[in-house]
Amino acid sequence: MRGQDRIGRLIKRHKLAAALAAVVLLTGTAAIAQMASELTGATPPMESLPADPLPKWIVDDIRKMRAYPDQPPVIPHSIEGYQLSVNTNRCLSCHKREFTQGSGAPMISVTHYLTREGQMIADVSPRRYFCTACHVPQADVKPLVENLFKDMSEMGVEPAGSE
């Protein structure tokens, strides 16, 4: 008899917990639904808008200063029409080690000739083959957010050992 009472109380607790969870879930869903308009903005989410015009690419062939150490260099020329697939990589026709003298282009980093384990190989590593995964052309556009980055030298930090 005592075992049956214990089971009955356990069932009541589970029912109460399930009911409480349902109330919390419904209340939370309603709160999120009310916030949705704040998150999506004034335009209805499924409304079609005209696309912004394509930005003008910076194609001056001037190498840009890197913002931080080990930043992949940006592409200072147009890559429109470049084929970049498993079988073809037009970037390598100028930037591969053996073609840089004739093209005048900077050679790709030696890190692009390393395997995942750090082993040097004769050709570009397959994981470094798709250049635009890291290297991007630059467009003449207004930044989406203001850049507040300051280099350490601008903050008055002295190099180590300069005291």
Task: Describe what this molecule looks like in 3D.
29% of the residues lie in helices and 0% in strands. With 163 residues, the protein is an all-alpha fold. The longest helix has 39 residues, at 2-40. The chain starts with a helix and ends in a 60-residue tail after the last helix. The mean pLDDT is 81.
Task: Detail the topology: elements first, then pairings.
Blueprint: H1 2-40, H2 92-95, H3 100-103
State the share of residues found in helices, binned by percent: 25-40%
Please outline the major beta sheet.
none
Radius of gyration equals 29 Å
Query: Average pLDDT value?
Result: 81
Q: Which strand-content bin applies to the residues? A: under 5%
Element order, helices and strands?
Answer: HHH
Q: How far apart are the termini? A: 84 Å
Which assembly state applies to the chains in this document? Answer: single chain
Question: How many strand elements?
Answer: 0
Q: Identify low-pLDDT runs.
A: none
> How many helical elements?
3
Structural class: mainly alpha
Shape descriptor reads elongated
Notable traits:
elongated; mainly alpha; 29% helix; 163 residues
